[in-house]
Amino acid sequence: MNTTAPRKPDGGRPAGRQRRGRGGAHRVSAAPYLFLTPAVVLFTLFTAVPVGYTVYLSLRKIKVSGLGLGKGSRQEVFVGLDNYVAAIGDAELWAGWLRVLGYGTLVLVVMLGLALLFALLLDSAHVRLARFSRIAIFLPYAVPGVVATLLWGFLYLPSLSPITKVIEIDLLGSGTVVFSMANVAIWGGVGFNMLVLYTTLRAVPRSYYEAARIDGASELQIALRIKIPILTPAIILTTVFSIIATIQVFTEPTALRPLTNTISSTWSPLMKVYRDAFVTGDLYSAAATSIVIAGVSLILSFGFLRVVRNRAFGEG
Amino acid sequence: MAMSAATHRVLRRRGPLGVGPTVILLLGAVYCLFPVSWVVVAATKSRAELFTTAAFAPGTGLLSNIADLAAYRDGVFWLWMLNTILYAGGGALLSTAVSAVSGYALAKYRFPGRNLIFNILIGGVLVPAVVLAIPQYLLFSRIGLADTYWSVLLPQILHPYSIYLARIYATAAVPDSLLEAARIDGAGHWLTLRRVALPLMVPGMVTIFLFQFVAIWNNFLLPFIMLGDDQKFPLTVGLYTLLAAGANQPSLYNLIITGAMISLIPLIALFLTMQRYWRADLSSGSVKA
């Protein structure tokens, strides 16, 4: 127990200060492990075990012998990477990847672009009604994806839409539905990303900008030369999180499906996983596909980080 | 230094360039408020008014819409509301407790395995929900817990981002000198955590609670996969089934619209009253306004 631990004889203030950053007034004991036990147990039960189970399932398959009618005729067997090979060769899944690539690029560019623009404008010195705008733009964060899709879905429906009364366009047609869906995701995500960037900017001492202003820099120059570089780590982080979320798009297309027949049940890779697992009952290929989706998320996130690091911090 | 705040205020008030940025931000605000304000107005319309009157003209059917919604399947909508509050409130409370204690341990102790445990816990953020939801369902069914409240509550307690935030808050808000003082005064680890560290971490914990509350409130995939019994649905899954059932029956639109409108009230209220805690500061633990 720390109560009996003798005080360090040379534990004077200067030494203590030097040791700052190594963190911790306490000595090694069982306490931190006890404090971390709930998190580690939860991680094991609800992350590690399910991941392991998915990998296990993805390597197996039901083998049907004979007509598949008798009791022992359906057997789970180890099939190695067969399910992965099937997933990678699956044309339906590829079509889903392509749709999500187009959708995701649109969402990422517009959503993060708007978030950055709004954050910079909010932080600039000359804006009126900034508080109102900030709260209003952040408000969609409080709207669940399903409800957001439902609201916009009704706004797209020809019988109800105030939009199609102004512009004659079928917002749920096969050519436009991707944009309509992207709009839902952009609407729902722009506020949160704006807040992340904005709070990062607010943490910067104002004196940085005063100095630049005294040197004659314009607001635009301050934004481009000082604020964006300061924001770079936060932009990278929000981009990575957005990439992961976009690859796994499920809620928006699923909730929009009842309103249009232009969205198939395998529109996105994750929807195909859901269909395989719960509609057609092929857990094994669903497991393999979900590992593939996870792999693609990781490769894209790390690939992005790598590219950015080389560009921003690389020495040529 | 003292002058800079005043200069800043003057610039803010007198700025000559205020029009463009202000207009752009207001356009953003209008875009973000558009669907929400539409649903508030649409919920007041009777069945006939919904398809005939102008989109933003208030109607006369709000009370009968609410009565219809309350009567739908013996009031299952209110049950969805209560379930959502239970999932989000209970889950966020547990999540905040687990995150705060873990974050404190990771920030204020040095012990073998600290970085390893932190990296593993944070690494969870890279595991897509999809890889987890299906096996979680299968494992829960094995132990007979699928389609129960537990199956939605338990998997949402641990959140890597909350632990990350809690660690940052603990580092910034709990001075080592105070812990040292508590130690010299003879307080044990648990007492120090409860009486010294946690009170200092409260503002950060409120933020973690809010983020977790919203994340669970908004979650669709997990309850959609876990639950079959509509008495246990949260609002997201309930409204989705209502939409799936009513999309081809315009007579049900009023029900769906009113349900969507009412489902927004609790979160928006929480959101507006807790304004100052909504910070997503990733780079520092500062929690002052």
TrEMBL record, chain B:
> Membrane-crossing residues?
20-43, 77-104, 116-138, 196-217, 252-272
The cellular location(s) given in this protein's UniProt record come to: Cell membrane
Residue ranges annotated for the ABC transmembrane type-1 domain, each copy included: 81-274
Coiled coil located at which positions?
Answer: none
Gene Ontology terms, cellular component aspect?
A: plasma membrane
Q: Which UniProt keywords apply?
A: Cell membrane, Membrane, Sugar transport, Transmembrane, Transmembrane helix, Transport
Q: Which Pfam families match?
A: BPD_transp_1
Q: Please tell me whether the keyword Transport is annotated for this protein.
A: yes
The record's listing under CDD domains reads: TM_PBP2
Q: What is this protein called?
A: Multiple sugar transport system permease protein
According to its UniProt record, which protein family does this protein belong to? Belongs to the binding-protein-dependent transport system permease family.
Biological-process GO terms, alphabetical:
transmembrane transport
Membrane topology qualifier: Multi-pass membrane protein
Is the keyword Transmembrane assigned to this protein?
yes
**InterPro entries this protein is in?**
MetI-like (IPR000515), MetI-like_sf (IPR035906)
Q: What is its main location?
A: membrane
